[in-house]
Design brief:
alpha+beta, Rossmann fold, D-amino Acid Aminotransferase, Chain A, domain 1, four-stranded parallel beta sheet, about 30% helix
Length: about 450
């Protein structure tokens, strides 16, 4: 088969799911910029034509490295599934004369540029001000209506997001945010093409008010959604919508769910809003993950678009419910092969699937009173799930058994995650109910005496 180069870095779908889907369409040569997940090696390694592990490089040096390795293996395409590597990979693909996200990729990565592009294109975004120096904070509070959200311009997973009500809080939050970004960078969760910018660049934006009840059929949904898609040679193909449970303060995700319980007409409206947002960014060929806030009386605001697939298990959720192997579709598109895109975005599927993030907070967002050790097998999952529902541990995104569950820190966002679980259910309401019961029961289930625990190794 045709060789491709897959640039691996932190974040994105787990390799045990992603790599076999690439290998179905090409010979996959892996260039790893971060330690590879050895716990799942038996699943993903057989799909690799070669594996090369290197230390991270920055900027032009990283692009040179990717280009050199791509030429060495004769790659007909270069791709990544990591937010932190999309810019470098896009620059490398362009230099090699291969399909990729193109020059517009920075607009899908730097949240400041993204918002400027959307504002100029008439795409609805919250009011914002860029923060480069302390005086920018004063400007923000003079122009915008607090409370405001401080965001790191190059972050992912709600890292370095803090809510502030006045200038003094904002100045302290800016210091905290930079410290969090420095710590994230040390762990490999930071922009690889421009590491200094990833730590230092921020913006302040108005917090718009969502109203999920104006949009969803049923309770329990969060007030924003994501549109998953692919841009193919400049043409955007929105594929489906995924929903969320309500976030934890300030805006950390705890569950991604498919399908979203939205009426057909409202899904079509969201489809067109996402089209305007993605088209404005001028992307060439890449995956897209576009987040949209849903307000009262039909109001919408764009949160962000990424030039990659949604994180955690979003790609598997879409395949389970909608029957679309998005990773395989992207590989074929990058290779110039035929791809069967839906004529319009899919609005209905079969069953339901979700990614549930384990964080040390209860359903109302209150911190756990104790921090027990994480152990998937310590939980009696059968007592928490609807008959017919199933849950499995995503090992690549979970702490080893016996590790203390980290305390949740607002500025750390997803960095406080203890584990990731993948769930399937017969329906969306069943899935929402399953997630709610799990979130309420976990701290007690993990702390239960060993005599009350189920048999180790059980899977429900």
């Amino acid at each position: 088969m045709t060789p491709i180069l897959f640039v691996y870095a932190k974040g994105g779908p787990p390799l045990e799911y992603a790599l076999p889907r690439m290998a179905a369409h090409a010979d996959v040569h892996v260039l790893a910029l971060a330690p590879l997940p050895r716990t799942t090696e038996s699943v993903w390694l057989p799909g690799c034509a070669s594996v090369t592990e290197v230390r991270p490089h920055e900027g032009v040096e990283l692009v040179d490295l990717i280009c050199s390795h791509a030429r060495r293996v004769g790659a007909a395409a270069v791709l990544t599934l990591s937010e932190y590597a999309v810019v470098a990979v896009a620059h490398a693909a362009r230099r090699l004369g291969l399909r990729g996200a193109g020059e517009g990729v920075v607009g899908a990565r730097d949240k400041r540029l993204m918002r400027r592009i959307w504002r100029d294109a008439g795409v609805p975004v919250p009011g914002f001000t860029e923060v480069h120096a302390p005086e920018d904070i004063a400007t923000a509070f003079a122009q915008l209506t607090p409370p405001l959200l401080l965001k790191a311009a190059w972050s992912a997973g709600s890292t370095a997001h803090l809510t502030v009500w006045n200038e003094q809080q904002a100045e302290e939050a800016w210091k905290t945010g930079r410290s969090v970004m420095e710590a994230s960078s040390a762990q490999g969760y930071a922009e690889l093409h421009a590491a200094d910018e990833g730590v230092s660049d921020f913006l302040l934006e108005e917090i718009v008010t969502g109203k999920a009840s104006d949009w969803f059929d049923g309770a329990g949904w969060g007030d924003y959604v994501s549109v998953e898609g692919i841009v193919a040679d400049g043409r955007y193909h929105p594929l489906c919508i995924t929903g969320r449970m309500p976030t934890i303060a300030p805006f950390t995700e705890r569950a991604s769910l498919a399908p979203a319980a939205l009426p057909h007409a409202l899904q079509r409206r969201i489809e067109e809003v996402s089209r305007a947002a993605v088209d404005a960014l001028g992307l060439d060929t890449c995956a897209t993950h576009t987040e949209i806030k849903l307000g009262a009386d039909g109001a919408v605001w764009l949160i962000e678009t990424a030039a990659r697939f949604g994180g955690v298990m979003t790609t598997r959720q879409v395949e389970t419910v909608f029957g679309l192997d998005m990773i395989g579709m992207l590989v074929r598109q990058l290779l110039g092969r035929d791809v069967d895109y839906p004529r319009r975005m899919l609005t209905g599927g079969e069953g339901a699937a979700g990614s549930l993030v384990v964080l040390a907070v209860d359903p109302e967002g209150r911190p756990w009173s104790e921090l027990p050790a994480w152990d998937f097998d310590a939980v009696d999952w059968s007592a928490l799930l609807t008959p017919g529902s199933r849950v499995e541990l995503v090992r690549e995104h979970s702490l080893p058994p016996g590790s203390p569950v980290p305390a949740y820190e607002e500025a750390g966002g997803a960095n406080s995650m203890a584990a990731l679980c993948f769930l399937t259910a017969a329906s969306g309401p069943d899935l929402l109910a399953d997630c709610g019961r799990i979130l309420a029961a976990l701290p007690h289930a993990l702390a239960a005496p060993s005599a009350d625990r189920p048999t180790p190794g059980s899977t429900v």
